[in-house]
Amino acid sequence: MSTSIGSYAPDFEIPGVDGSVHHLARYLEQFRAVGVVFMCNHCPYVRLYLDRLKQIQAEFQDQGMTLIGINSNDAEQYPDDSFDNMKRFAADHQLNFPYVRDVTQEVAQSFGAEKTPHVFVLNQQGVLCYSGAVDDNANDTNAVKVPYLRDAIAQILSGATITPTSTEPVGCSVKWRR
Fold first, then answer.
1. SS3 state of residue 100
2. What is the DSSP-derived secondary structure letter of residue 41?
3. Tens of pLDDT, residues 56-104
4. What sections of the chain are H helices per DSSP?
5. Which of 67, 86, 146, 152 gives 136 a disulfide partner, CB atoms 3.0 to 4.6 angstroms apart?
């Protein structure tokens, strides 16, 4: 059960490291584009992409876009991904976007998240417009040829056609509960 391109994204209401509950519907009321990023604390790919995600947030936040980081990993098998460690991670890395906890893993399942990071870009109507990788080079920021996430956000904000609508996500697998 995953959300396909052109379908409405599943709503969610889950706790954030900031102490408040984050509701996707409230974000869609405020923003013209929402980037949902399934991520975690310990994944080396998330760490490679973290500065790029923060740059994208900084670049587009005044244009009506926000990212939302969601950690769905099983914290029993991977204690690094506990809620307390998420709070520490957000502070240590000075995240400039909300970081929320999907304890039940229902949000990750309904979106069809496979990796960390795996990004899903929604328009203001809550329709999934892009799913996949942040860009085409996890290891070297300077060697990126196609910034998929940045392009999808810019295309939504300008009313252009989103292309491509999906790519293969690159990263560690989501750590599902057994």
1. strand
2. S
3. 999 999 999 999 999 999 999 999 999 999 999 999 999 999 999 999 9
4. 24-30, 44-60, 83-92, 106-111, 148-158
5. 146
**Is residue 94 a contact partner of residue 64, using CB atoms and an 8 Å limit?**
no
What's the pTM? 0.97
SS3 22: strand
Q: Coil, helix or strand for 42?
A: coil
118: left (phi over 0), alpha (psi -120 to 50) or beta: beta
Q: Beta strands 65-71 and 33-38: pairing type?
A: parallel
Strand partners, 22: 14
State yes or no: cis peptide before 147, omega within 30 of 0.
Answer: no
DSSP state of 47: H
Question: What percent of the chain is helix, strand and coil (3-state, nearest 5)?
Answer: 35, 25, 45
Read off the pLDDT of each residue in 104-123 and give the average, rounded to a whole number.
97
User: Residue 68 pairs with which residues in a beta bridge?
Assistant: 36
What are the pLDDT digits (tens) for 30-59?
A: 999 999 999 999 999 999 999 999 999 999
Amino acid identity at 107: V
14: helix, coil or strand?
A: strand
